[in-house]
Amino acid sequence: MEADITLRVDGEDRKVTVDTRTTLLDALRDRLGVTAPKKGCDHGQCGSCTVLVDGRRVVSCLSLAVARDGAEVTTAAGLADADGPHPVQRAFVANDALQCGFCTPGQVCSAVGVLAEVKAGWPSAVTEGDAAPELTDAEVRERMSGNLCRCGAYPGIVAAIREVGA
């Protein structure tokens, strides 16, 4: 069975017909040609396909495209604006938070989501007490734990996120 859906991808409305079993990741990559989110494990375990859906981070390989009909989908490619790269993207470069770059689009989208969560005061498993979360190394590591980097660029990733969140 197929369905016609509309996704607002990186600020542009995109209409597409998809099989109702198609994941958001496959709709983006295979049907719309949006290659920023990567297909790593295709099981929701690595985070390389992370995008922002209506401002919240989503592992797109586990989300059905039809369930996101009408949603605002932001990929790492859509974070930049007329002034240049997003602050998180600039911080990743400045802090050597990438090596091969395969996981970077998902890491960047997840980092933007993390910063929004902390700003909103959402606690994580390592947030102490009822206080608003502070962007400590432990807090960043916990919140980014769903995004894996096979190259081991974690120190730079944590530093980049803390720099932007400061």
Task: Summarize it.
By secondary structure, the protein is an alpha+beta fold.
Read across the widest sheet, the strand sequence of neighbours is 2-1-5-3-4
Question: Which strand-content bin applies to the residues?
Answer: 15-25%
What separation lies between the terminal Cα atoms? 48 Å
Weakly predicted, low-confidence segments: none
Our Rg estimate from Cα atoms comes to 16 Å
Determine the fraction of residues in helical runs and give it as a percent range.
25-40%
| Total count of helical runs of at least 4 residues | 5
CATH topology of the largest domain: DNA polymerase, domain 1
Number of domains: 2
- CATH C-level name of the largest domain: Mainly Alpha
SS-based class: alpha+beta
Strand tally: 5
Shape: globular
**Average pLDDT metric:** 96
> Any idea what the CATH superfamily of the largest domain is called?
[2Fe-2S]-binding domain
Order of helices and strands: EEHEEEHHHH
Largest sheet: 5 strands, mixed
CATH architecture of the largest domain: Orthogonal Bundle
